[in-house]
Structure formats: C-alpha cells, structure tokens
Amino acid sequence: TQDKTTTMTNIIILIWTLTLGIQVTQNPEIKSIKQGETVTICCKTSQFTSNCNDCVSWYKQKAGEAPKLLIYYINRLQSGTPSRFSGSGSRYGSDFTQTISGVQTEDTGDYYCQSYHYINSKSIVSLWCTFGGGTKLVLAGPTVKPSVSLLPPSSLQISGDSAALLCLLSSYSPQGALVSWTLDGSEVTEGVVTSAESEQDGRYSRSSVLTLSKARWEEGELYVCRVTHDGAPHEASFHKSRC
C-alpha cells in the first residue's frame, strides 16, 4: 500500500511538473494585412503534443465575445469555419500553423493556438490544455503616420519627489506602434508605463508615461520618446534647458 501511495505521489508530481513547464508560443503578436492577402500564424509547443482527437486547436476571439473554435485536430475545420481557413502540422509534433487564404474584413480579431496533452498510466489519467499568447490580425488601410507629442512634467510635479513625462501618439493607422524612451542617449525602461492601443473610426492612439525620481530628472537634459510604426521611426524630444 505504501509503495502504491509513493508511486501515485510521484506520478502526480511528475504531471504537475510537466504541466507547469509546457509553453505555447505564437508569432507574430500583431499582423497587419490587406484584404484578399494570405496570412499564416505560427504556433510552437515546448513539448510534443499527444496523439489525441484535439491535440492542437485554433480559436478566434472578437472583443467582448467568447472564443470560437475554428480548427481542431491540427487541420480539421469546425462546422461553420470558412474554407479559406486551414491548419497544418504533424501528430506528436511541436510546430503548427493556421493559414487564412484571401483574408476578409470579418477575419480581424485575436487568434489563439491551444495544445492538448494527455497522460494515461495504470495509476492515473491526466489531460490538460495550454493556450498561446495570441495573434492579433488587423486589416491594413492606407498608412497614416502617428502624431507624436511629448509633454514635460508640470512645475508642481517638479517641486515634489518625482517627475513624469507624457508621450502621446494619435491618429495613426494601422495599429502596432511601439514606444521607447531615451535619456541623454541611453534607453530607459524603468518607470515606463505604456497604454494599450485604442481605436476610433479606424485610427489608433496610445500614450506612454516615463516617471523619474527628482534627482534623476535634475541630472538629465535630453528626453526623447521614440516611436516605431509600420517600420518607420518617429520621435518627439524635450530639452530641459530650453524650457
């Protein structure tokens, strides 16, 4: 009895170790594509999938809606999934793809890869699912570069213990603008908070705040908010001595 209990405990520990160690990665995180083009989303699992009826599935989610199953068992289309969708990969594999041939406007949304793992022994049966981080698919219209502005801290802030600079990005398309900060030529990551992108009438906006200690603010001179959008660089800068 003790041997059986020990065996059961070891199996449970092994299962939890495997479960916690499994990772599912997707790329790209954001994909901008024109209507009618073809897009492929990649999914990689850190362990081989199981030989089962649902080893890899693909889901689509619209904002405010529940995820919808599109593809199961690697390449089988769920009822109602348009034929322009397809899946590929191999059983017991770790690399999988979902392809949309001839993207339509209704195909925008977030796509998730789900891997299914299964253990069956004499003592215990366990199965679990792991989702990838998602891929956001957006339709690209005409490229509109962002308007970038940098607002320095107020005099009231400067008199306190910290100072915050605000970088505003507005009226750009498509989404996917990335923001970074430099102080006197060196990149700064600590104290940076960047919002999610918001959309209105097909144009996007976001903001980023850099918060510094009073001492670091007083030492610095040139603050730059750098933006990368659609592969092109943009920036706004602030010289403290010129204010």
From TrEMBL:
<keyword id="KW-0393">Immunoglobulin domain</keyword>
<dbReference type="InterPro" id="IPR003599">
    <property type="entry name" value="Ig_sub"/>
</dbReference>
<feature type="domain" description="Ig-like">
    <location>
        <begin position="146"/>
        <end position="239"/>
    </location>
</feature>
<dbReference type="InterPro" id="IPR003597">
    <property type="entry name" value="Ig_C1-set"/>
</dbReference>
<dbReference type="InterPro" id="IPR003006">
    <property type="entry name" value="Ig/MHC_CS"/>
</dbReference>
<dbReference type="InterPro" id="IPR050150">
    <property type="entry name" value="IgV_Light_Chain"/>
</dbReference>
<dbReference type="Pfam" id="PF07654">
    <property type="entry name" value="C1-set"/>
</dbReference>
<protein>
    <recommendedName>
        <fullName>Ig-like domain-containing protein</fullName>
    </recommendedName>
</protein>
<feature type="domain" description="Ig-like">
    <location>
        <begin position="22"/>
        <end position="125"/>
    </location>
</feature>
<dbReference type="InterPro" id="IPR013106">
    <property type="entry name" value="Ig_V-set"/>
</dbReference>
<dbReference type="InterPro" id="IPR036179">
    <property type="entry name" value="Ig-like_dom_sf"/>
</dbReference>
<dbReference type="InterPro" id="IPR007110">
    <property type="entry name" value="Ig-like_dom"/>
</dbReference>
<feature type="signal peptide">
    <location>
        <begin position="1"/>
        <end position="21"/>
    </location>
</feature>
<keyword id="KW-0732">Signal</keyword>
<dbReference type="InterPro" id="IPR013783">
    <property type="entry name" value="Ig-like_fold"/>
</dbReference>
<dbReference type="Pfam" id="PF07686">
    <property type="entry name" value="V-set"/>
</dbReference>
<keyword id="KW-1015">Disulfide bond</keyword>
